[in-house]
Amino acid sequence: MANTLLKQFRYMNKGDLPTGLKLVLMYLCDLANKETQIAFPSIATMAKEIGMSEKQVRRWTHKLEKIGLIKIVGNRFGGDKGKSCRYQITLPAITDIKNKSQQTSPPYRDW
Fold first, then answer.
1. What is the pTM (predicted TM-score) of this model?
2. The Cα angle at residue 4 between residues 77 and 75, in degrees rounded to 5
3. Side-chain half-sphere exposure of 86, counting CA atoms within 13 A
4. CB of 30 within 8 A of CB of 89?
5. In Å, what is the CA distance from 4 to each residue of 41, 51, 62?
6. What's the chain's average pLDDT?
7. Non-local CB neighbours of 72 within 8 Å, separated by 6+ positions
């Protein structure tokens, strides 16, 4: 599924998205489970592997949730601080992307 999610990411309109947000989203797409489309890296792991601060990663994951590209669905520890959250990837389907290819900019705002 990671390949499918990366393909969806590749074809979606990302014109207005900041680079940091795209990087966090691509990282989550790469890690997502094939069946559930859920990834569960910790903020610290993401920060280390992407090369950002934990604060930046936290900010971008919350922005991704706000614009509807991921859902933070909790974790197996009940949301304890310092534990990995589960992020469900909710990218538009490739058919939706191809049908809306005439749009000049995505509906993402508030950067």
1. 0.77
2. 5
3. 12
4. no
5. 19, 25, 23
6. 81
7. 61, 65, 85, 86, 87
